[in-house]
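Because showing beats explaining, we let one protein speak, sequence and backbone structure tokens together, and leave readers to judge.
___
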Amino acid sequence: MAGHISCFPMPLVTPQPQETDEESPSSSKRRSYADVSLVQRTLAVLECANRLELITVQRISDECAIPPSSVVRILETLCAEGYFEHVSRRGGYSLTSKVKALSAGYHSKSLIVEIVKPAVDALTKEYLWPFAAATLEHNAMVVQYSSIPLSPLAHVRSTLHKRASLISRAHGLAYMAFCSSRERTLLLRLALERDFEEDKIVSTNYQWRKALRMTRKAGYASRLSRADPFTNSLAVPIVVEPGHVVATIGVTYFRRVVKRSQITVMADALRAEASSAADAIRRRM
């Protein structure tokens, strides 16, 4: 049972930042230009066409409150660009497969950030500590959104796109504890290939599996203590179905200033938000 984890044959606050590398939540509200009405109308036509069984000029005009002549020009332009086909006078128009290209850049990570961002921000406003959401990328968890710009107790300027170990970090342990055993086996092999120094604090298969069992029992993961002597992190998984983890959300705080009772409160809040996020993601999948 003894031996370094790399031998496993089986799965086993700084001052408030004034300038950060992350976008301020209020920055998107600043605008120096007016809406482009033609773009708004074109998007309305596209959205309407995706809802209709029979796409006709009159139906779109009625639903979007756009004059028929304008609808015709928009549809004919979209036909010329390959997004629509004109079937016939009675048959109206039909969408082509090219419309799928309009959502090609919108991946599950984008959906997850869209759903969890309000919760992450709300948690920071309530508890002051920085919260974050992370998703799996190859052999590590990667922070996709962080509320550091909102936190007066942030320990660093930015964690956006930071990679966290699947073996020793809270986000990684939360993911590994609740994903399927088959996925865990494969991910562990990938994680061990990184040969990170911090992962060596887990010296045996038994020790790491014990950490996973404790995570499942508690319902949240805690960063293994020696990974960072000054701060600690908690994380919980967003599970859409048994064994299917889509992301994790967590919080980082200074060890010496947070009491055990406060940790329990934040862990409960994280679990509640993760459950709500899972419900929202299931409705959108």
About this structure: The first helix runs from residue 37 to 51. The helical segments are 37-51, 57-64, 68-80, 108-127, 170-178, 181-194, 205-218, 260-284.
